[in-house]
Amino acid sequence: MKKYIASWLLFSALFLPMAAEAQSSNLDELTGSLLKQIEELKRQINQLQAQISRVEEAVQEVVRFSKTLRKGVEGEEVKRLQEFLRTEPDVYPEGVVSGYFGPLTERAVKKFQEKHADDVLRPIGLSEGTGIVGPKTIEQLNKVLEEKGRSGKAPQALLRPANGGEKVIVCHVPPENYASAGGSTASSLPPKQTISIDKSALDAHLAHGDAVGACQEALRPERVPTTTEPLPQTQTIYEQTPTPTPSATLSPSRITPFDAYSEHEPALTRTPHGEILAVFNSGGGDRGGKLYGSISKDDGKNWSEPHFVFSSWDDIDVIRDRTGRLVLLAQNDVPGEGIVTITSSDNGITWGNKQRVTPTTANGEAGSIIHASDGYYYVSYTYRESLDVNKTDVFVVRSRDLINWETQVRITDGSNFEFDSSLLQTGDGKFYLAYHSYTNQGIIILSSSDGINWNTAHKILISGDAHMGVNWLEVNGKPVLFYGVYGTIYYTFPASSGWFLKVLGAYGDTAADETLLSDGSVGIAYRLTTGSAQDIFFANAGKLNL
């Protein structure tokens, strides 16, 4: 027994310390391995947290449509509509994003409505698209947009952070600054401020003339290839004017009856019998997509029942030429066939003798026409040279017989949309041209001695992309340019110290046209939305203070 115990003690003395040492070593290795695993897990957790953070930042929601939109409307909601429509090439192959609801947008809306007829048209008893974005169309737009958002196909312009609070930088022009800007020059127009606003307030700011983006220090000169003359430093003199008088107090006459139709874009002239002829777009019922005319024999107090003029749509102009014939400038009645003239020799009752002005194109838009003292008819128009380029330019072309047209003269080569052009020749033979420029955010006025070579004469900076509908009249021997900004009509004319700018009044909600009445007052035709309809009204705006 003692021998066994002695052996055990010897074994313990020799081998147990070695086992303990081996066990300790294994424990250290295990601990080190676990610590390394913990560090790796921490690293992975940090990576996952970073990814989650990035995903949370990237989570966006679509901006829903909410407003009724129709032809002639403009603004950010129209831009969003165009951004949406361009994601469907079968609906909007042109893909123009301008912020102005013109004929291309209207046609695209009709295609969208007919594409989703079961949800948009049939529930309200319609079989054809109306081109008006109403409740059913808004509902379907939002439905399709949300589907695109879930599939990652929604355009970036229609997305915003899901947690809201998005800010937008705008160039803000405080209204009070206009009232105290007397003597400002074209390069130092009323003070502007670059401010940050909530995106929810953007539409309200745009409606008051603000523009998206930081204010620019100066208006970038527009290139007019037909001249190398530098821009004169003319002045814009802002007159202290009262708040525009609402048109409701002017006892206007109604050219079109109250109905469910959408009438707009009126054009005025004097007939050979001395009456006032108004031609306008009519867009509803059995009159949809056509031009109609109405005649007043008493300086705009009463108007005849509207009669059919031509199967066309959008911007138009009408004149009485030097032979007494009436000439209408409009889009061709065949879609995509350019701009045409048609004439009337019976006081505007019947029209015919259609002649093409521009080459075959779906990209033209009528501007204006005059019959000058040199015997030429001069036409200004807007032309989009390529569907791949998101811009339009203004051109002038002339003809002696409305059949054979000379080579067009390019007036603009801007980086954005140039449109809404108007021509005038005054009694002294001088030509004037004005157009609306998105490139320069304002109205550009040019002059010419021959109607071919043009010099930039003046610029009027307008903050925001207002669709202004410029129109010339010669009043007391002076060229007077009228334009509208969100329903307020302004007029400007040259003087020895610069160009005076005055307010005519508040008339309607889109482009208007003016004519001189027998007593020297200015008559104005304009569109006014009345309930669900849009009709053409006429008012005597009084005599101008020149």
Q: Could you outline the blueprint of secondary structure elements for this entry?
A:
Blueprint: H1 2-58, E1 60-62, H2 76-85, H3 103-115, H4 117-120, H5 135-150, E2 159-161, E3 167-172, H6 175-179, E4 193-198, H7 202-207, E5 211-212, E6 236-238, E7 253-254, E8 263-270, E9 276-282, E10 290-296, E11 307-310, E12 317-320, E13 326-331, E14 339-344, E15 352-356, E16 364-371, E17 377-383, E18 393-399, E19 409-410, E20 418-425, E21 431-437, E22 442-448, E23 455-461, E24 471-475, E25 478-485, E26 488-495, E27 498-506, E28 513-516, E29 522-530, E30 533-540
Parallel strand pairs: 6-27
Antiparallel strand pairs: 1-2, 3-4, 3-5, 7-30, 8-9, 9-10, 10-11, 12-13, 13-14, 14-15, 16-17, 17-18, 18-19, 20-21, 21-22, 22-23, 24-25, 25-26, 26-27, 28-29, 29-30
Quick overview:
The protein is of the alpha+beta class. Helix content is 20%, strand content 32%.
Notes on the protein architecture:
This protein folds into three domains: 61-161, Muramoyl-pentapeptide Carboxypeptidase, domain 1 (Orthogonal Bundle), CATH 1.10.101; 167-207, no CATH class; 219-253 and 313-540, Neuraminidase (6 Propeller), CATH 2.120.10. Helices cover 20% and strands 32% of the residues. It is built from seven helices and 30 strands. The strands form eight sheets. The chain has a five-stranded mixed β-sheet with strand order 6-27-26-25-24, with no helix packed on it. A four-stranded antiparallel β-sheet has the order 7-30-29-28, with no helix packed on it. Strands 8-9-10-11 form a four-stranded antiparallel β-sheet, with no helix packed on it. The longest helix is centred in the first third of the chain and has 57 residues, at 2-58.
